[in-house]
Structures are given as C-alpha cells and as structure tokens.
Amino acid sequence: MSPNLRPLSPQLQEAAKELGEDPRRLEKDIQHIKDWLKQQPHLRARTDDQWIVMFLRGCKFSLEKTKQKMDMYYTMKTAAPELFANRDPLEPKIQEILNAGFITYLPQLDKHGQRVSVLRLGQVDPKKVTGEDIFRMNFMGGDAALLQDDAAVLTGTVAIIDLKGSALAHAAMFGPSSVKKCTTILQDAYPLRMKAMHFVNLPSFSEALTGLFLPLMKEKIRRRVVMHSSLESLLEYFDKDMLPEEYGGTAGPIQKVAEPWRKQFEGLREFFKEDMKYGSDESKRPGKPKTSSDLFGVEGSFRQLVVD
C-alpha cells in the first residue's frame, strides 16, 4: 500500500530526490519509524504518513537521525511547556502578535523554491506580549509548516528579520533561559531546514538583539546570516514580485500579503487543540529520564539584558 502523502511539484520531487528520498523504499522507511515509535513507551507521537515523512526528509532519510529528532521534538514539548501551551490561534496574546504584523509567510517561494517568512519585531508592543509569547507563536508557525508546507522541509526556509522600530525594550523581552530553549528547540527538534537569515533595518544597538541569538546558533547557520545595510541589497536575493512593498517589492503592502497565511493559520485551531495530547512522559523513558538541564544546559551561565 502506497504511503498517504501529498503530491509534490516537479521542483519539490527533485529536491526530495536530492535529500535521498527513494519511492521504492519510502513505504518501508515510514513503517520503520512507525514500528520504532510503538517501542517508545515515553512518546505520545503522531503516526500519520505525512507527518513522519516530513521528519524523514528533514533528516535526509537517515533513520537514526529521524528517531533522534522525533524524540527531541516530543521531549521538548513537555520540557518547555511555557513555549507549547495555550496554542489556540485565537488566544489573545497570539492575536496581539498577529494584529501587530510580527510574522507572515510569503505566498510565493523564492528563486530557489524556498519558503520565506518575514519577522518584524519592532511592530510588537513589549508591554503587551513577552518573549515567550513570541517564541510560542514562532513554534506554532513551525508546526503549521510541518503540517502543510512541503517546501519548508524539502527546499528549506529563509527568514527576513526586520528590526525597524526595535528598541532596547524589545531586546529585554528575551531572557537568556528562554533564548537558549528556543535556539535548542529550533535546531535540534524541528526538521525545518533554515537556509538563510536576512537582517534589515538594523538599529545602532542591533548587536544587543543579534548577540542574544547568533552565538547560540550552530556555525552552519551563522554562516547563512546576511546583514543588509540597505533594502536594495535584498533584491540580490529575492525577486521583486514576491516581496512586499515595504522591502522594495511589487507584491503589495505586507498587511495584504499576510492575509492568506493568517487566514490559513487561524483555520488550524483543531489541529493545535489536538496537538496538545502529544509529548513525552520521562517517567516511562527506557534508561535515564531527560531533564531540563540535559536538554538546555546550565541556565546560570547566561546573563539577561536589563533595561531601566
């Protein structure tokens, strides 16, 4: 019986092939992961073909890496409940972030077939939401991508991080403990493939913001960071017709460009409600249970930026 998967475009079929996907072996690989999950008493995990294949693709069809990443994904959900609770897209804090225009995924893929997100921290009111709310929203966006966006895994994701309007109060939103958790989860638990981060509209104190995150990112990802001195240089990486007007493009104002993704995202209430039942129970893990210290390191080694 063939796996129950979404059909891929020719471009994404080629990308899947480059990652090691073999149609002749695909059903067997998916079944292998299903059988493995049945043998993990500590994991409460999704077992549908499409969800499993997203992890296989994100791990280039290494069965061992897929197991490690899936285990980490569900373990993190339980280990960092503050980042994975209250995941209703209509929850007031999430709506505040959406209304502010903090995040959107552009409808068009870039010239490499990659999914592009735009993050605008300066739009958020640090008196109304916390850094943990921002991370919670980001991981909800990541799960939405895992659910329905093959490009985000097969060809990868690109982030345009716009710091226009950012102040030191925005940097102070992010405590060192939550930043460490966020970067660990992003890199070790999600099979999304981050291909580049483009920073634009950098304020004079931008290092206070980037310095919170970039040192904790793996060297491979740090090499993919581009700091832009002007918006014009964005056009060296992105076609004009896919970018919102605010970034020198012709796709229209970002608020209008964001509408389809927001509508789609808000339509996932049942998915996020059901998703709350998945995670890990460390009391049932074979061998030694994983603690927060094992996963995130010693929190006392980080300093938090304090702003008067």
From TrEMBL:
<feature type="region of interest" description="Disordered">
    <location>
        <begin position="277"/>
        <end position="296"/>
    </location>
</feature>
<dbReference type="InterPro" id="IPR036865">
    <property type="entry name" value="CRAL-TRIO_dom_sf"/>
</dbReference>
<dbReference type="InterPro" id="IPR011074">
    <property type="entry name" value="CRAL/TRIO_N_dom"/>
</dbReference>
<dbReference type="Pfam" id="PF00650">
    <property type="entry name" value="CRAL_TRIO"/>
</dbReference>
<dbReference type="InterPro" id="IPR001251">
    <property type="entry name" value="CRAL-TRIO_dom"/>
</dbReference>
<feature type="domain" description="CRAL-TRIO">
    <location>
        <begin position="90"/>
        <end position="255"/>
    </location>
</feature>
<dbReference type="GO" id="GO:1902936">
    <property type="term" value="F:phosphatidylinositol bisphosphate binding"/>
</dbReference>
<protein>
    <submittedName>
        <fullName>Nuclear transcription factor Tfp1</fullName>
    </submittedName>
</protein>
<dbReference type="InterPro" id="IPR036273">
    <property type="entry name" value="CRAL/TRIO_N_dom_sf"/>
</dbReference>
<dbReference type="GO" id="GO:0016020">
    <property type="term" value="C:membrane"/>
</dbReference>
